[in-house]
Design goal:
membrane; alpha+beta; transmembrane helix; 18 strands; transmembrane
Length: about 575
């Protein structure tokens, strides 16, 4: 049985694009890959038509079930998304459980913040000797006049294993003038323990860390659904997956590091508490973080190796685009990828910072809280309306980005001043972020909380890239991309074109070229019944538009579009002229 290429005509209202949309869900990220599919067929030719303007549910189902590859990618992405969501939810549950115990203790004691390898209690930023006092230094013999919790349990110097293994505790302040707190065992257990002032001050560090871990877990849970709901560019998906994989690897090291720190501060003999508050916490967290890293590595390898390879090899190769048009289009696609990343990175980073500002000690010691709230309101006013549009349409990020989302300085007659406004507001956002780094409080939070630092650095990198690419696109204004794309009815925001795969630069085919075949209105190839490949015309005097194809036998089986001609038929005579 001979093989034939199946051309897919995708209609979006009037424009016709001859491409095969391969919708792939990888990590619940929808990609449009240009491809050709092969079927065993007879001389009867096949023409598949997909209506882009149809019902969204039907369209999504068509993309998912197009072939085995799309179905497999969807199933992988679907289960991967929910697996990571479940893992992050379990981490959030574990962090919340242990944080609840420490928070009950520290809230009952009503003590302020501390910092340092030598534990210090401070009430102002920046920290200095006048605003801080030493609490505990690791490996220093404790003050013999201080009563420690282990003294109330036994005369021996051992560690009391508290934990949360089904026993539970009741926290009772001794009085209103001291920091001491009594922990009473429940469920039939006998005994109680009094935590000294020094011990409770030490507990502020893990309490603060666990609160931040809960915020991180929520941010990454929402990230899974952001990937599910959007249709960003392939580079944006790979960039987000790289960030997730790097962070997953970091959290494994951080868990091991904090286990050693808390053991030296809380549970080792001679420490102010001598209580193991985390008997199974770190082992439980590690058992969840390792599968999370494996899933991220798997997703990253599949995206970079499989999806990118398929995208590069099976890309539908356009013929006739000059090199400078391809270069302009690549800059536009790079800018679109950066804008897609900003859709989540900026709201997530600002949300983490505002949560710190409103719900932690920073709200009480910061001198410029009003200014920080003003910056947050500015971000909200500029960003929220267009973010809602982004959620609904999966195509725009912020209001200023919506003006330049499909803007590459050339497309759809976008005016040059719109490009200037995009660059201006980008500089404005970068200026606001730079002013935030000038703040002592923000810098302190940046240093102490790696997750906020990660989002901040990522956002700065992305916004700088957007500004640079915006300037490049502005210089490309009115350089011919809009005219070229309009003449070919091609959607530039969907596909890229590899310059090294250009037909003008490709090696000569193994087999000689066939003759040109006219195709109207669908895909018609030479056959025994119609060796010329010409379609029959009902009225020979009609003026029609025909599509000319040049079939080239290649390993990739690509059918190259040669062009369009406007023809006038009069009996056996035919005169044609190029329509573009």
């Amino acid at each position: 049985m001979p093989k034939c290429v199946v051309a897919v005509a995708v209609r979006h209202q009037n424009p016709r694009i001859f491409v095969l949309l391969l919708g792939c869900f990888s990590n619940i990220q929808l990609f449009y890959l240009a491809s050709q599919d092969y079927f065993n067929c007879s001389d009867d030719k096949k023409d598949i038509e997909v209506e882009v303007g149809g019902a969204p549910t039907t369209l999504q189902y068509t993309r998912i079930t197009l072939n085995r590859l799309t179905t497999a990618f969807f199933l992988f992405g679907f289960f991967h998304c929910f697996a990571q969501g479940i893992i992050q939810s379990l981490l959030f549950s574990v962090d919340s459980e242990y944080n609840a115990l420490l928070k009950k203790v520290t809230v009952a004691a009503n003590v302020p913040f501390f910092v340092g390898s030598t534990l210090r209690m401070c009430d102002y930023l920046p920290h200095d000797d006048t605003s801080c006092s030493d609490v505990f230094t690791i490996n220093r013999p404790p003050n013999q006049n201080v009563r420690h919790s282990n003294e109330l349990i036994t005369e021996n110097n051992f560690v009391w294993r508290a934990g949360l293994e089904g026993s539970g505790f009741s926290v009772t302040p001794l009085d209103n003038t001291t920091y001491s707190v009594t922990l009473k065992l429940l469920k039939g257990e006998s005994g109680s323990i009094i935590l000294s002032q020094t011990c409770i001050q030490t507990l502020l560090l893990p309490s603060q860390d666990l609160s931040n871990f809960r915020r991180e877990n929520l941010a990454f849970i929402f990230l899974q659904f952001w990937l599910f709901d959007s249709v960003p560019h392939l580079l944006a998906g790979i960039g987000a997956r790289i960030l997730l994989t790097a962070w997953s690897a970091y959290t494994i090291w951080r868990t091991h590091h904090l286990s050693s720190v808390y053991r030296a501060l809380l549970s080792n003999p001679g420490t102010p508490c001598s209580v193991d508050f985390f008997p199974i916490y770190f082992s439980t967290r590690s058992s969840l973080e390792i599968p999370d890293l494996v899933l991220n590595l798997t997703a990253l390898s599949i995206m970079i190796w499989t999806v990118l390879r398929v995208y590069a090899v099976q890309l539908y190769k356009r013929v006739g685009a000059p090199a400078h048009i391809l270069r302009i289009h690549k800059f536009f696609m790079a800018m679109q990828a950066c804008l897609q990343l900003e859709v989540y990175i900026l709201p997530a980073g600002m949300g983490l910072w505002i949560d710190q500002l409103f719900n932690t000690y920073i709200n009480h010691i910061s001198e410029h809280t009003v200014i920080y709230k003003g910056v947050f309101i500015f971000y909200t006013v500029v960003r929220i309306p267009s973010t809602m549009v982004s959620i609904c349409c999966c195509s725009m990020s912020f209001r200023w980005l919506s003006r330049g989302w499909y803007w590459d300085g050339t497309r759809f007659g976008t005016k040059e001043r719109n490009g200037c406004s995009v660059i201006f507001v980008g500089f404005l956002f970068l200026l606001c972020e730079s002013l935030m780094l000038y703040s002592q409080v923000y810098r302190w939070t940046f240093i102490m909380w790696a997750n906020l630092a990660c989002f901040t650095v990522a956002y700065i990198i992305v916004i700088v890239a957007c500004i640079i690419l915006g300037i490049v696109c502005l210089r490309n204004f009115d350089q011919g991309l809009a005219q070229y794309l309009a003449s070919s009815n091609f959607a530039p925001e969907v596909f890229q074109h590899r310059e090294d795969m250009d037909i003008e630069k490709a090696p000569l085919p193994e087999f000689p070229f066939r003759k040109l075949h006219t195709i109207y209105p669908g895909c018609v190839f030479p056959s025994s019944a119609n060796p010329s490949g010409h379609t029959a015309v009902a009225n020979s005097k009609d003026r029609i538009r025909i599509h000319l194809y040049q079939a080239v036998r290649r390993d990739s089986g690509v059918v190259f579009i040669v062009g369009e001609k406007e023809c006038h038929l009069n009996g056996s005579h035919r005169s044609c002229a190029d329509s573009w």
